[in-house]
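queue> pop job 88
queue> type: inverse folding (structure -> sequence)
queue> payload:
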C-alpha cells in the first residue's frame, strides 16, 4: 500500500507543476504578444502615412480632398480624392484591420465624430503642406485610425 501512496503524490506534484506552468505560460504570451502587435500596427500606420506624404499624387489627394474643412471644396472631386487615398490605404493595411481617415486643416483638431468601435483604436497623423506645382499654400493633415476587426 505504501508504494501506491508515493506514486499518487508524484502524480499530484506533476499535475500541480503542469497547472502552474500553463498559467505562467498564458500570462507570458499575453503580455509579450500585445506590445508586438501594437508595434506592428504603428509601423504599418507610419509606413502608410509616409507613403502618402512622399508621393506627389497622394499629397495632392490630401490637399484637395477634405472632410468639410473648407467651403470651396466640391463634393464630387473631393470624393474622388478620398477614394484614391482609401484605395492606397487598403493596399498597405492588412485585411484583419479596419481603418478610417480624416483630412483636416493643420491647425484644427482632427478627430472622428462617432462611429468608432469600442475596441482599442490606434491613430497617427502626418501633415502635408504643398506639392511642387501648387500655387496656394493651404496645409492639411491626414489622421489615420486603425483597429482590429
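queue> result:
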Amino acid at each position: 500500500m505504501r508504494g501506491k501512496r508515493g506514486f499518487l503524490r508524484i502524480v499530484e506534484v506533476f499535475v500541480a507543476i503542469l497547472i502552474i506552468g500553463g498559467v505562467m505560460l498564458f500570462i507570458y504570451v499575453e503580455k509579450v504578444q500585445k506590445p508586438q502587435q501594437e508595434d506592428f500596427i504603428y509601423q504599418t500606420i507610419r509606413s502608410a502615412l509616409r507613403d502618402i506624404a512622399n508621393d506627389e499624387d497622394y499629397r495632392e489627394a490630401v490637399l484637395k480632398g477634405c472632410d468639410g474643412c473648407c467651403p470651396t471644396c466640391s463634393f464630387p472631386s473631393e470624393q474622388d480624392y478620398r477614394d484614391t487615398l482609401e484605395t492606397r490605404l487598403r493596399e498597405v493595411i492588412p485585411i484583419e484591420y479596419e481603418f478610417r481617415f480624416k483630412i483636416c486643416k493643420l491647425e484644427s483638431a482632427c478627430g472622428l465624430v462617432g462611429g468608432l468601435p469600442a475596441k482599442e483604436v490606434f491613430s497617427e497623423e502626418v501633415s502635408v503642406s504643398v506639392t511642387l506645382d501648387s500655387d496656394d499654400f493651404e496645409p492639411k493633415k491626414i489622421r489615420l485610425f486603425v483597429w482590429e476587426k
